[in-house]
Amino acid sequence: MVEDKRLHKIPGHNDVKWDNRNADKFRGDVKETGIGFMGWDYDTATEQFKVYLHYDQLYYWKYAEVSKLGKGFVDGEFWGTQCPKCGDKFFPPRVNCWNLNCNLARSVWTELRQEGVVHTFTVAGWSGKSSLKRLPFVLAYVIVDGCKTAIANELRGLDPWDAEFGMPVKVVWKPKNERQGTVTDWHFEPADDWKPGPMNPEKERIKELCQPVIEWVKTMK
Ligand SMILES: [Zn+2]
Prior knowledge:
This protein is an alpha+beta fold. The protein has three helices and eleven strands, in the order αβββαββββββββα.
């Protein structure tokens, strides 16, 4: 018998008794070519979260050990993990602590405050088709609630050249019925008490780089 060397058993078909009749309600009738989001499913008994996609046929992925993260997004909650030994918190979550002194201690779930600070950012002057009309926009890595990992998402609600390292941000959610259990369910915006700093040479430089993009977007139908 092959020894299972996994630190944690990841629930598979044989371990989690999904009610597969649920899949029927996600099959739908997809006519267009490409990926279609069909819905999410959560098994309360096993705390397992799944997302269904349609790409010519029905697919799903299981969140397995990080099910609480995906289900939390649907519910408007941020769930990170915390090491019971050193207290470090992680968001995105880590199942095991990465602090070498903790010997891969298994972390526990903890609900986080939905606020953070910008660790680093970039101003996007080009994007995938679905986001072209919103150019130029800011993509930021944010440290949420003092965690030791940073999570990437869009930072809206400011002029791109006003983004700053270390600026405080809050979380803004999509309406509940539009959430898909993914990071696109929410975005960052500046914290309510944040005011942009005065213009400086670096901000002027970024503003100048943004102008052709802003003009180009105006020409888009
Ligand atoms: Zn630790």
